[in-house]
Every structure is written in structure tokens, then in C-alpha cells.
């Protein structure tokens, strides 16, 4: 195999590995669950999974040029130290990159799982035809990324674009960030499940009762989507509500930075097509720039599926090497 790169993409329960050479074509892609633990245990899981992916792709440590890692946490881009993340507090204060870099003797970069997929989308997805767009990473949370004039936006102090903690409704649901009523807590996996759970608990006639076996605590976001696919009116109303909230958020994004596209990536992106018409309609209704034809924007679903993260991690470490050589 020619010189190659590995991308590692951590989600809430699974970690993905991808191997590619210089172009955004994956020679290997794997997905597996991981176990939270000590930093040493996380490093072992990364190294084991990375070595297996590299071997499966026909590569070796001798062909490996760099590693990029996407994590659901705020990361110091220079040291790889995990600063904060509600799902990654077990790694707080530990460097994710230094032990891996020492093990392989090559550059390793890490960043938050909203910025990294934006690198992937810019390299291998919508960025091939669009130079100004926003990314909404929709899954267990709602992250964001921006590309302006073809450049992924990264901010000082290891920060990044943030739209998920905007408030677009009067609901008072507490958010994991400490605020109340954030769109993140209303429209993501846990929020959709909560909408469904409340419907069952209040006695509404819904297929969700059958899907959860009568136990509201077991309702998941995917059950809500499945019930809607079966024509359940309650589930359809929940998703209409989700689409309206997302559409309002997208209107705010257009007012803020006038993107040509807003792209959904992440775990729920594959289920977003049924919501796109409502999201786009709500966005257009709520944005005077669009109503007057002063700008144009469309909300779309990523064509990269759940590979945006590993592709973005690969592109991020490639750019580190290119900048170093320049």
C-alpha cells in the first residue's frame, strides 16, 4: 500500500476507523463498540482497532503517515488534552494524541466531533461544489461547523461554531450544558425519545406503546421514526415539531452567515430526508433574506453517511502535514 492515513471517529457508543491514501477513498472502514475506561484503556482500544484497520487495508506501520481523531469533547488542538465533554469526562485532563504519537512515531491530531466532520464534508462531500456552507451534526447532540470561502472555521481557545445551544422555543427542558430549552436538548436523540415517552405516559393512542412494550422508559428516537414510517399520527406530529425547531435554527444560521447549503451529518442524518421539506419550508418562512430573494440556501442530507468523521479526521492530519511542510 502507498503511504496512508487513518481516521478515528468516536461516537457515544461506537468508534469508527477509516484508512485512505491521498484521495478521499477509503481502503478500509470499520465500526465497533468501545468501552469507557481509563486513558490507558482508551489508548489500547485505539491502537488495537487502528492496527486491525491498517492490516485489513493492506497497509502497515511503515506506510502510516498520520492519524486524525474525532471525539465528542473540547480538545486542545496543540496538546490533544481533553478539556471538557459531557460524555468524555473520564478523559478530562489526559492527552489523546501524545501517547498515540509516541507509539507510532508520526503526527496525530484530535478535534471535536463537530469540526472534524466539517473537514470531511469540505474534502469529500458538499465542499466539492460549494464553498460556503454550514454543517449540523445531528445525533445524540447537535453540533455545528462552518466553511467560508472553502476554509473550515476553527476559533481561538480551541473553540468552534456553536448553534445547538440556541433557544428556538419556550420549552424549559434542562440541557446538559446547564441552560434551559436549548434546541440541542429538544431535537436530538434523547429529546426525540423524550417526546415519545411523554406521549406514551400521557395515554395518547400511538404505535409507540406497542414498540416500547408498554414501558415508556424504553422509547428511543428510532422508535419514533419507525412509528412515523408506519403512519402513526402521534409520531408524525413529534417529527413535525422537530422539523419546525430545526427549520427555525436553520433560518437563524442563514441570517448569521448566508450559507449556500446547510448539511446534516451524524447519526440521525440518515433519517432526516423525511423532514427536509418541513425544515426547508420553516427556514424559508422565518428568514426575510430568503423571502426577498437576497440570498439562497437549501438544507440537505450528507451523502457521506457515517463516514464524514473518519474522512474529516484523515483530512485534518493531512492538512497538518501540508502546513508543516509549507
Distance between the termini: 25 Å
| Radius of gyration based on Cα positions | 20 Å
The first-level CATH class of the largest domain is given as Alpha Beta
Poorly predicted parts: none
Total helices: the number is: 11
Short description, anyone?
Helices cover 39% and strands 20% of the residues. It is α/β, with parallel strands linked by helices and 326 residues long.
Write a structural description.
The structure is a single chain. The chain has eleven helices and twelve strands. The chain has helices spanning 39-56, 98-104, 115-124, 183-187, 189-201, 208-211, 221-229, 233-257, 273-285, 288-291, 308-325; strands at 4-10, 14-20, 26-33, 64-71, 74-75, 82-84, 108-112, 133-138, 142-148, 151-152, 261-265, 298-301. It has a five-stranded mixed sheet with strand order 3-2-1-4-7, sandwiched between helices. It has a five-stranded mixed sheet with strand order 10-9-8-11-12. Strands 5-6 form a two-stranded antiparallel ribbon. Helix 3 (115-124) crosses helix 11 and helix 5 packs antiparallel against helix 8. It is globular and about 60 Å long. The model has no long low-confidence stretch (mean pLDDT 93).
Amino acid at each position: 500500500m502507498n503511504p496512508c492515513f487513518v481516521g478515528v471517529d468516536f461516537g457515544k457508543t461506537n468508534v469508527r476507523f477509516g484508512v485512505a491514501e491521498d484521495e478521499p477513498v477509503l481502503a478500509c472502514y470499520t465500526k465497533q463498540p468501545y468501552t469507557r475506561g481509563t486513558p490507558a484503556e482508551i489508548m489500547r482500544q485505539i491502537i488495537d482497532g487502528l492496527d486491525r484497520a491498517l492490516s485489513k487495508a493492506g497497509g502497515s506501520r511503515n506506510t502510516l503517515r498520520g492519524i486524525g481523531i474525532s471525539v465528542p469533547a473540547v480538545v486542545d488542538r496543540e496538546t490533544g488534552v481533553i478539556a471538557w465533554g459531557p460524555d468524555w469526562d473520564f478523559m478530562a485532563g489526559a492527552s489523546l494524541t501524545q501517547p498515540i504519537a509516541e507509539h507510532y512515531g508520526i503526527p496525530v491530531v484530535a478535534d471535536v466531533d463537530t469540526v472534524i466532520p466539517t473537514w470531511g464534508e469540505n474534502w469529500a462531500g458538499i465542499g466539492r461544489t460549494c464553498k460556503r456552507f454550514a454543517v449540523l451534526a445531528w445525533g445524540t447532540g447537535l453540533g455545528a461547523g462552518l466553511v467560508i470561502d472553502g476554509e473550515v472555521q476553527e476559533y481561538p481557545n480551541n473553540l468552534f461554531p456553536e448553534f445547538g445551544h440556541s433557544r428556538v422555543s419556550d420549552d424549559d427542558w434542562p440541557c446538559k450544558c446547564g441552560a434551559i430549552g436549548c434546541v440541542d436538548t429538544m431535537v436530538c436523540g434523547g429529546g426525540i425519545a423524550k417526546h415519545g415517552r411523554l406521549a406514551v405516559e400521557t395515554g395518547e393512542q400511538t404505535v409507540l406503546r406497542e414498540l416500547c412494550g408498554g414501558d415508556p422508559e424504553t422509547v428511543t428516537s428510532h422508535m419514533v421514526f419507525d412509528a412515523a414510517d408506519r403512519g402513526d399520527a402521534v409520531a408524525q406530529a413529534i417529527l413535525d415539531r422537530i422539523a419546525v425547531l430545526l427549520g427555525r435554527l436553520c433560518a437563524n444560521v442563514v441570517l448569521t452567515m448566508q450559507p449556500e447549503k446547510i448539511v446534516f451529518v451524524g447519526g440521525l442524518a440518515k433519517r432526516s430526508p423525511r423532514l427536509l421539506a418541513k425544515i426547508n419550508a420553516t427556514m424559508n418562512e422565518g428568514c426575510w433574506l430568503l423571502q426577498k430573494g437576497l440570498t439562497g440556501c437549501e438544507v440537505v442530507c450528507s451523502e457521506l453517511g457515517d463516514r464524514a468523521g473518519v474522512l474529516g479526521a484523515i483530512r485534518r492530519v493531512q492538512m497538518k502535514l501540508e502546513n508543516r511542510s509549507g
